[in-house]
Design brief:
single chain; about 260 residues; mainly alpha; 2 domains; 10 helices; globular
Length: about 260
């Protein structure tokens, strides 16, 4: 497979689209009644730059970002390991599927936000509850994609490997796991975004730091500019996390990446 190349045309379109968005934002907040309730982009960008050296609460904005990222990465990491194990187990073992799949299908539609009250009830409002909520956000997507990947393994490949005397351990690591990897990474990309959203919701309840707390602080004080700064930072970091995950996928699954 050929590797994907840098496409300058797509980059230009992206820059133009973002520029048009900011122009439209400026126009609406300057010449329409929207200006009575919404700050213009210049005010938001000014506060964004100031937040790098002026604390919001106890930390500057980079400190809040690092706190949120730590919570996301811990919860996401643990959930990814558990989700891959459970998903592949359900996809390769009829007994594991019979036992765990009904429970998983029952809990899968419940969004992470719905778990906030129960998690706080059992684990309090400390860091543990935030890690768990981030993990819940990631677990479902990783498990589902790992299960789908394991189900889609070509049975003829497994049969041929057994006919050649390959051990079950080698079949798993050389046939099943490589076949599942693209699906697993697809689930991890969605899971990382879901974890990022979950931590923001968790930080709006019983937190004193983090990006979600920033937005809640702005809402409580009617500081819409701070709310929009938090939203911009959340969007930028979410985009960077997705880009990083795609880069890791291209590195580890280069054999599965087609030019496009």
């Amino acid at each position: 497979m050929k590797k994907k190349r840098f496409d300058p045309e797509k980059t230009i379109y992206a820059v133009v689209a973002i520029g048009c968005f900011f122009v439209l934002w400026w126009f609406l907040t300057t010449f329409t009644p929207v200006k009575n309730t919404t700050p213009d982009p210049i005010a938001v960008l000014k506060l964004l730059f100031e937040s790098f050296y002026t604390p919001i609460g106890s930390k500057v904005i980079t400190g809040h970002l690092l706190v949120s990222l730590r919570r996301v990465l811990v919860g996401f990491g643990v959930a990814t390991v558990l989700g891959i194990i459970l998903g592949i187990a359900m996809g390769t073992s009829k007994w594991a599927s019979a036992i765990f799949k009904p429970i998983f299908e029952l809990l899968r539609p419940i969004p992470p936000i719905a778990w906030i009250s129960l998690v706080i009830l059992f684990f309090g409002i400390g860091e543990t509850s935030k890690y768990i909520l981030c993990g819940i956000g990631a677990f479902t997507n990783v498990t589902l994609n790992a299960y789908t990947g394991a189900q889609s393994v070509d049975p003829e490949l497994v049969g041929c490997a057994r006919m050649l005397g390959t051990s079950e351990r080698d079949i798993f690591f050389r046939v099943v796991l490589p076949s599942c990897t693209p699906q697993i990474f697809a689930g991890m990309q969605v899971a990382l975004s879901t974890s990022w959203m979950a931590v923001l919701a968790a930080e709006m309840v019983g937190a004193q730091e983090g990006c979600g707390w920033m937005i809640q602080r702005g809402s409580d004080t009617l500081n819409i500019t701070l709310v929009m700064v938090g939203m911009i930072v959340i969007g930028l970091v979410g985009m960077l996390l997705a880009t990083l995950m795609r880069a890791i996928e291209r590195r580890l699954c280069s054999w599965n990446i087609m030019e496009g």
